[in-house]
Amino acid sequence: MRIACVFVPQLALQAVLRRTPDARGGPVAVLEAGGDGAASAGGKARPKRIARVTEFSPEARREGVRAGMTGAQAAAVSAGLRLLTVTAADREAASAALADVGYAFAPRIERADAGDRVFFETEDLSRLYPAGEQAIAQAVQAAAARVGLGVRVAIAGSKGVGRLATRARELAVVPSAAGPARAALASIPVEILVEDTELAAAFRRWGLRTAGDVAALPVDAVGLRLGPVGARACRLARGLDDEPFVPRLPEDALEEAIDLDYPVAELEPLSFLLRGLVDRALARLRGRGLACAGLTLRLALDPRGVDVRTVPIAAPTGDAATLLQLARLDLARRPPSAPIVGVRLLALPARVRATQLDILRPAGPAPDRLAATIARLAALVGSDNVGAPVVEETWREEAVGVTVFDHAGPDVPLAAQATEPRLTIRRRRPPEEIEMLLDRRGPAAFRGRETTARVMVSAGPYRLSGEWWREPENTFQREYWDVHASDGAVYRVHQDQRDGRWYLDGYYD
Amino acid sequence: MFSVSLVGMSARPALDPALLSHLISAQRLEDRRGRRGSGIPAIDRLLGGGWPRAALCELVGRRSSGRTTILYAALARALAAGEAAALVDVGGGLDPRRAFAAGIALRRLLWIRCDAGEAAKAADLVLGAGGFDVIALDLGDARPRLPTAGWIRFKHGVEKQGTTLLVSAPARAAGTCAAAVVELGPGTPRFVADGAPLFAGLQAEAVRGRGGHDRAEPESQEARCASLAFSCRS
Known about the structure:
The complex is a heterodimer. Chain A has helices at about 10-20, 60, 70-75, 90-105, 135-145, 160-170, 180-185, 190-195, 195-205, 210-215, 220-235, 265-285, 320-335, 365-380; strands at about 5, 30-35, 50-55, 80-85, 110, 115-120, 150-155, 170-175, 255-265, 290-300, 305-310, 340-350, 385-390, 400-405, 425-440, 440-445, 450-465, 475-485, 490-495, 500-509. Chain A is α+β, with helices and mostly antiparallel strands. A six-stranded antiparallel barrel of chain A has the order 15-16-17-18-19-20. A five-stranded mixed beta sheet of chain A has the order 5-6-1-7-8, with helices on both faces. In chain A, strands 9-12-10-11 form a four-stranded antiparallel beta sheet. In chain A, β15 and β16 form a beta hairpin. In chain A, α1 crosses α4 (about 90-105) and α13 (about 320-335) packs parallel to α14. Chain A starts with a strand and ends with a strand. Chain B is about 30% helix and about 35% strand. In chain B, the strands form three sheets. In chain B, strands 5, 6, 7, 8, 9, 10, 11, 12 and 13 form a nine-stranded mixed beta sheet that branches. Chain B has seven helices and 13 strands. By secondary structure, chain B is α/β, with parallel strands linked by helices. Classes of the chains: A alpha+beta, B alpha/beta. β13 (about 385-390) of chain A pairs antiparallel with β7 (about 110-115) of chain B.
């Protein structure tokens, strides 16, 4: 079995850089509050939580920023330093994005508890990447870069060896066989081989500098002196590891979130925040070859409360502008009851329908562009007004339904070319109530919202009734007439036999 | 290469005959793009083969002139040929039973119900998606109120996408942006008087209007007119 280990070094720093991409390339430090700060000046026992630098960019390191500095100390040594705080939402989003990178390459992955590492099998990828495992590792790095993460990738025969290789190198391919694996790991320093500093110090005291030196020792003897931890380090240095691989299927929905330092009460700044969330969510979905089929916004309100809303999406789409527009429309239609201090965006993944092109038929619209267009049309005219028309199972003439548009749907054989085309009716929905003047032959004149006319010729009545099994108010009993009016049009009108009212159904056209 | 001859107050360049033989008139260029069947033989004859492809076309007529039937016939024809079609329907007047009877594969028709203010935007979105061979913009009774720039945008859009945009309205609006225009006269209803009268259908006169590409020599009135008959029977 070949396993890829993908590791995100400095997860907190990368998580905040995903949220603030403009800070990339400059000196950046992450401040995190710890509970071990100095006591307050008054000498009270309660410790003061002082935020200290935990992670920082290479640019900040060059300017002298070090871990453990307070924000003031770090700002003093680096004038252009950006001090950013990391939230749990940032970490979760970055960790989930890393998982999506894994799912882009394998159906099942294993996520490490810390959230900064994923493992997945690579044996099935050899057909997609005939150039070899080096190409697979580079493709994983490129996929991670697309979701805003810089990762280290190692492909090895076991999880432990892969984990060790990512601690030592940006990109590594370690053979599975014990001999070549031992040779590939031989130059790794013992401080990297073992994370336990006491164990590393013990190896140093024995005069061991590299993993190759440790691998040369007999495993049983090391285990006798340093315990199972030492024996495991010795086996790892030889390229041997028996840690089980426990992969899992992806979760249904993916989440992106942001916690705010200050409440947002207006739509425009909220849209700005949503844009970043939508972009990041779509980047993760694209990595798995998926689109967004549903959007749920969970808005944390100030001072308390949560507003959860589902944004309807007509068809799966990967278009950020469309999703943002739909979210904006929903927020504008139903504004939150209080300012917002946090946003969680759940995107439901779905596959965009693949279309098998027919050699004898035109290609038609591209599925992804069509989905985005339908979503935009739904935002413009309402989702109930976009789709394919469908005949409802009722005899009510005005009934019509809307179903999912399917360009590749079944054909209807075109009726044999008749000498006269079939006349259609342009319907009024719902039928428009009109005033009707009657004479002894039937309708004589009528007045509606837009039309007032005398009836020249009338044909009817045609009686239609149905749905008698339903509630009395839902049944219908009608008498239809076709009337040639003085304005030149031929209208279809009916009288409701239950209350005697007249309605204009439409006109023949 | 060419000389300029002054005739009266107007100056028109007289092209070299050798060069002239290589030029293609707008009318011939349009014909080269091809035409699609309208689904009604009389309309096909009137338009010289059907509605032009990659062009904006207008169908003009008052109530009960038969323009909705002509529109549905074009949609049915396109869908039967496996092409993609959309109907932007102002007021949502589509009758699905009659549309099905006219040969429209309902499941494959993208139907957008909207009001008059949203129609142009909806049609523009469908056009922008690409891949639709026929887009019918049925304005119903609404007078088209789109600025000239909007029609020019549609014209360039359909030429780029290869789409036939059929605009059905009570009055002309697209002006020279329309490549083909069919104007329908008021329909004359036919009632069968066998005891009580029974509505049997409509008769209407169709006239080919002058479109933006219509640079052909003047034709006789007969060549520009067609009689249409629409049946109401199942």
